[in-house]
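Predict structure. Chain length: 276.
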Amino acid sequence: MGRVVLLWLGLAVWPAPALAVNVAHLDQAAWPGAAVTYAALARAVFAGIDGPGQAETWVTTREQVLRQPGTRQRTTLPAGSRLTGVEAFAVRGQGKAFGVTLWSFTGEADTPGGGMAVLALFPEGAAAPCDVVAVQTDAFCDALQGKTLPLGPGEAFFIRNHHSNSNQSYLSTGLYHVVSGRLRRIAEVFTLAVRADCRQCFTETLDWRTAPRPGTAYPDVTARVRLAPCSGCGGRKAAVRARTFAATSRFDAATGRYVASGSGLAALDAFNEGNL
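Prediction complete.
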């Protein structure tokens, strides 16, 4: 059984170490021993983009419409968006190696804060992407340092969207993998933390687990969220009682996608909606 625990306002992840590289200069080689640079990858993903070298100097010159995995929606990366950083890491999909790059932009995108994060997938050693998608839905977006979860013939990885205000923190964690050279979202879980007096104060801890399923190489994936009163708010002080929510997704070979069973995390979503 595989297991990954994500602690809000702190991280504890097993088993994979941090594998992501934060690319500051696009003239760096994208693949060990290869002539392909991140600059070449950028030009392959974003038509018309260019710059002298450092990531922060590159600006898009054309509008680009991108799909959002797990939804029927499209989003637009506007012309004039400025590249602010690149995060790169490796994953396996159906036994093959791929490079994943997360390109972060500032600009006038239709997201909180106007930023945009674009995920591009490359077969190992390739200079052209096999899939490009938009993944930002909140003020901040990251790939959890490239940490992965073993998943049958491949690995799953995480995309987080998040922000905080004075007394609440919001985190949406998406679990992704590669099927037939395409990026697929397995599940997405929203968790909330409220910092207030004991009548309202609580935290939510997300835990991912996998379990083998007979007849398929892809394991079941369960997202479990533990809701708990804040430390020091036990007993009569706490208005929020500790409980656990869980939802399991199973791989559908006919569609090549994971599908949530039952009502998923609807009860958690309803609880959080009432506390926003």
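Summary: The helical segments are 38-45, 266-273.
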